[in-house]
Amino acid sequence: MLTEQLTADAAALHQAILAHGGEVSPFFCGKEMGWAHRRIARAMEELVAHVEHFLELGGEKALCLGGDLDGCGTLAAGMQGVQDMPRLWQALAARGLPQTLLEDLFWNNLRRMV
């Protein structure tokens, strides 16, 4: 029940962010960040599915990948740090995302916000 409500709340929040031109980033950190209800992606395929879902919502210009991972003990998809972001790029490219979209997700979207 709680998971279903959190999922519905997250979807509504994402729609509001998109409607107002905001930006979002996937949650890469584990429970040590104080989000006991969060479950991070255990496999790269699961993280890719999360990214694809947000893109299906229309988030091509709002999704920002990367980030400040200070304080994260457990990262999504077995990542060890920002040095593993190319693994996420490669996994998304393997799913057919074009280079221009990948450049937006990893660089341009956040650059537009700042």
Structural notes for this entry:
The protein has 114 residues and is mainly α. Helix content is 49%, strand content 0%. It is built from four helices and no strands. It has helices spanning 2-19, 44-56, 85-94, 99-113.
Proportion of residues in helical segments: 40-55%
Distance between the termini: 38 Å
Structural class: mainly alpha
Average pLDDT works out at 80
Shape: globular
Low-confidence stretches: none
What is the tally of beta strands? Answer: 0
Q: Report the sheet with the most strands, covering strand number, pairing sense and barrel closure.
A: none
| Number of helical elements | 4
Order of helices and strands: HHHH
Radius of gyration: 14 Å
Estimate what percentage of residues fall within beta strands. Answer: under 5%
Can you lay out the helices and strands and say which pair or pack?
Blueprint: H1 2-19, H2 44-56, H3 85-94, H4 99-113
Helix pairs in contact: 2-3
